[in-house]
Automatic annotation (TrEMBL):
Cofactors, names only: pyridoxal 5'-phosphate
Keywords tagged on the record: Aminotransferase, Pyridoxal phosphate, Transferase
Protein name according to UniProt: DegT/DnrJ/EryC1/StrS aminotransferase
Pfam families: DegT_DnrJ_EryC1
Gene3D superfamilies in alphabetical order: Aspartate Aminotransferase, domain 1, Type I PLP-dependent aspartate aminotransferase-like (Major domain)
Membership in a protein family: Belongs to the DegT/DnrJ/EryC1 family. L-glutamine:2-deoxy-scyllo-inosose/scyllo-inosose aminotransferase subfamily.
Molecular function GO terms recorded: pyridoxal phosphate binding; transaminase activity
Statement: the UniProt record of this protein carries the keyword DNA damage: no
InterPro entries according to UniProt: DegT/StrS_aminotransferase, PyrdxlP-dep_Trfase, PyrdxlP-dep_Trfase_major, PyrdxlP-dep_Trfase_small
Coiled coil: none
GO biological process: polysaccharide biosynthetic process
Length: 225
């Protein structure tokens, strides 16, 4: 059952607020609008890119009926703490998943991620964990007011590395869902993140090429002050 159906089944509707992430696709926010409720954006945890429990607590009001946490890049929000928050304040807590993968594919991606993390420099590698499935291998290219991430990505693509910006514009900065809210971690992630290839089918040579291309670009980066 999808998010919209679950919200409807729980009686969430007009006059209710539902806390959702602004970092990601619009599907969850659109599901909230479809049931007549108001999406409220909360900030993310900078390590997992998923909703921060503290940020959800900070934006909830007496009209908050539900929270929809979304798995991002193979990461999961702190769901036990999220459920505890929901129980304390009478909020429905839902989790939107990502497309599944076979055990072998996940194991292979984790092996590839470990290889990249051990060898990359000049970028901030993802914070791993036992539950991280590496749906995407997302690094941060730190900037200091210049489009360092975008310049980095252009050069990588020219070297044959199929990288991409995972979230170009947070939802609260789009015309459809514009909100005058302060989500610093969300905006920082949108400015700095870059997804590198970590697919199960990649060869060791492919991974070596990614590392070589990235590490050769260290000179493009300047420390942020």
């Amino acid at each position: 059952m999808g998010t919209e159906a679950l919200l409807r089944a729980a009686g969430v509707g007009s006059g209710d607020e539902v806390v959702v992430p602004a970092y990601g696709s619009a599907a969850v926010a659109e599901a909230v609008v479809s049931v007549g409720a108001m999406p409220v954006f909360a900030d993310i945890d900078p390590a997992t890119y998923c909703l921060s429990v503290d940020a959800v607590d900070a934006v909830r009001t007496e009209r908050t009926a539900a929270v929809v946490a979304v798995r991002r890049f193979g990461n999961q929000a702190a769901m036990p703490q999220m459920h505890a928050l929901g129980q304390r304040h009478g909020m429905l807590v839902l989790e939107e998943g990502e497309q599944g993968a076979s055990y072998d594919d996940v194991a292979r991606r984790r092996t590839h991620a470990a290889y990249l993390t051990a060898r990359l420099n000049g970028v901030h590698t993802p914070v791993g964990g036992e539950s991280h499935s590496y749906q995407q291998y997302v690094v941060r290219v730190p900037g200091n007011g210049r489009p360092d991430r975008d310049a980095f990505a252009r050069v990588l693509r020219a070297k044959g590395v199929d990288c991409r910006v995972p979230v170009k514009t947070p939802l609260h900065r789009t015309p459809q869902f514009w909100r005058d809210v302060d989500l610093p971690e969300t905006e920082r992630a949108a400015d700095e993140t870059l997804a590198l290839p970590v697919d199960a089918w990649l060869s060791r040579r492919d991974l070596q090429r990614i590392v070589s291309a990235c590490n050769a670009l260290g000179g493009l980066l300047q420390p942020a002050f």
